[in-house]
Amino acid sequence: MPDQNKDKVSRISIDDIKKRMDEIVFVDTRSATALARNPLQVRGAIHLPAKEVENGRERLPHNRTLVTYCT
């Protein structure tokens, strides 16, 4: 049976993130310019600018919950 939540996009609260840290991968979708202006990043985050997400999907784990963030 196909995973019905595979392509689901939803918001997640900070409390939920704290409870599920072991199953979450953060994806920093800021542009390279924005990252250079403010290089602080969530520890362990994958940097994949929003414009590159479609072509860079192979860099993302398929067995974890992805949480994207930007400025």
Word description of this protein:
By secondary structure, this protein is an alpha/beta fold. The chain has one domain (14-69): Oxidized Rhodanese, domain 1 (3-Layer(aba) Sandwich), CATH 3.40.250.10. The protein has 2 helices and 3 strands; from the N terminus they run αβαββ. It has helices spanning 14-19, 32-37; strands spanning 24-28, 46-47, 65-69. It has a 3-stranded parallel β-sheet, with no helix packed on it. Helix 2 (32-37) links the parallel strand 1 (24-28) and strand 2 (46-47). The longest helix is centred in the first third of the chain and has 6 residues, at 14-19. The chain is globular, with a radius of gyration of 13 Å. The mean pLDDT is 89.
Domain count: the total is 1
Low-confidence stretches: none
Task: Spell out the helices and strands N to C.
Answer: HEHEE
State the name of the first-level CATH class.
Alpha Beta
User: What percent of residues are in strands?
Assistant: 15-25%
> Roughly how many Å apart are the termini?
37 Å
Radius of gyration, Cα only, in angstroms? Answer: 13 Å
The CATH topology turns out to be Oxidized Rhodanese, domain 1
Question: Biggest β-sheet, characterized?
Answer: 3 strands, parallel
CATH homology-level superfamily: Rhodanese-like domain
The spatial strand order of the largest sheet comes to 2-1-3
Q: Multimeric state of these chains?
A: single chain
Strand tally: 3
**What is the 3D shape?**
globular
Assign the CATH architecture.
Answer: 3-Layer(aba) Sandwich
Instruction: Give the count of helical stretches.
Output: 2
